[in-house]
Prior knowledge:
- The chain has helices at 18-27, 35-44, 51-59, 62-72, 86-93, 95-109, 120-140, 147-156, 160-167, 171-180, 186-194, 198-208, 213-221, 227-230, 234-255, 262-272, 277-295.
- It is an all-alpha fold and 296 residues long.
- The chain is globular.
Amino acid sequence: MDGDNPFTSVLNMINIDSSVLQDVERGFNLPPKPELLTQLQHSLEQPEPELHDIAQLISQDVATSAAVLKVINSPCYGLARSITDIRQAVMFLGLDSIATLVTGFLLKQAYSQHQCCIKLERFWDTATEVADMAVLIGKKIKSRVPTENLHMLGLFHDAGIPALAVQYPDYINVLEQANSDHSRSLVAYEETAYRTNHAVIGYYLASAWNLPKDTCLLILRHHDHHFFNSCQDETLRMTMATLKMAENFVHLQRRFSPSQDWQYFEASALAVLDLENDDYLDIRDDVEEYFIDKQL
Length: 296
């Protein structure tokens, strides 16, 4: 097996059996799906979802409502006017985008800092930046992939990391080793230490929370260097390419070096997104402007 690519046995794991998921949940401390998300997903599955009922459901949770409005009114969305209540938000952005924002906030609340050996605030700041960059790229290239799908993947793709950090008190050491040694990937270090990795755990978590199957699959494979050679679905390819570019942009801004994966994904990602070097540099300028505005 390729030490840098420990996914051979799970690449085709698109559907997840409920009994297998229950076994994982018993052996691994995955956060349960919040009741609010269960109710929201049930409402969205109706033949004709009622906007008013969904807005009222979200509004009953004050913390979630405030968090959603904060995100909507952030520079990333670039709205011409402020959105002041959830009903406005639902009407303006649509059900899918609102559901994504609610899911993202609930995910952040699912982990407790006192149980976790990494700094969750820093982790979620980075995840949010990757999600924002994915949306920025999607809008810039006029991607056919819905922006809410890009945002959800950007936010959720590394959700297995805090799960591992809660489960294993020494996980911070594994993370630091991987950050200082670029000859091996984080998933390789995780496999050595725990016989699993954050992509697999993230896949189980996303499945348990009933996220779209495509999102679950991309979470599972987001460190798989052979992804573009084996996946022929154009939407999945574009979504993965956008994620890897977003990860790289954030890594460049935060650590002043390319992400570890970018060397393996760069050529395919640029080809899938039909980007010449000048186009890439143009997007990078927008990314730099985003981070400058964020610091003001």
